[in-house]
Amino acid sequence: MGAGAVGAAVANLAGEYGHTVVALADSSSAAVASDGSGGDDAGDGNGIDAAAALESKRAGEPLGEADPTDALEADYDALVEATPTTLGDAQPGFGHVERALERDRHVVLANKGPVAERFGEVRELEEQSAGTVRFEATVGGAMPVLSTIEDFDPDHIDAVRGVLNGTANFILSRMAAEGLGYEHVLAEAQDLGVAEADPTFDVDGTDAALKCVIVANVLAGDDREYTLDDAEVQGIEEIPGSALELATEDGQTIRLIGEVTPAGEVRVGPRLVPEHGTLAVTGTENIVQLETAHAGRLNISGRGAGGPETATAVLADAGRLPDL
Q: Which pick of 88, 159, 253, 288 has the fewest CB atoms within 10 Å?
């Protein structure tokens, strides 16, 4: 579900990972395999022509002749939920997750909404289903943040911090490097496609906060549920170029840092970091630091967004699903 940058990349790359796409839907139409094949036939090549469906969409035509709800009722093994993130009730993504789990299907999320805003409900649905929910792609794009936490055991991770939004990081690093103002660099980022036409979620800290909320939910387990309302969030819109110049004079720079503290607080905001330190990544690069109980600090860096990049995390999760 979802045929934007991430959904399209998953559909295009699925074959390389040994999977067959049996349905692909956006908000208005769907392409569904004529025999609805999935399940035991998923590895037999019975699926849709994803490239043709996506080419139709690029030409302004429907993905296919079916309704999006038909995709949810197809015979599939795993639902990839890649519709846009929404806040509050996290719809329609949450409804898609709910329907898949009711049918005892697996779910792989690229959409942050269900696990940032309704984590407890998702876990309850999962417990009642034969399906499994995975959501590596919701935090850090291609970076294996959640799987590393899982491998080390959340009980042995004391804190998490990092740069979790490429747009904000591009703007801040360009402001620092070129001595340019926020509005100038934002316009440049939009021209380059680094920033959306409406960059609000990126520059006001919401996107990074959602990722930190998801991490906090994973770390807390059954002890507590976090939503965006539990996060203290400040963006970068009000940072003047002079603040970055002053920081540079002192051997520091400013980055938008998200963190989950040892006390379980979720915070996002501009922070001073050493100019040549680990957290001073540049451009659209992301980095996450895990403070572990027994292995010290782990740094995970890489591309935190992008269609193919995020799709690799989705497909890695698909590979972790039982019986798939």
A: 88
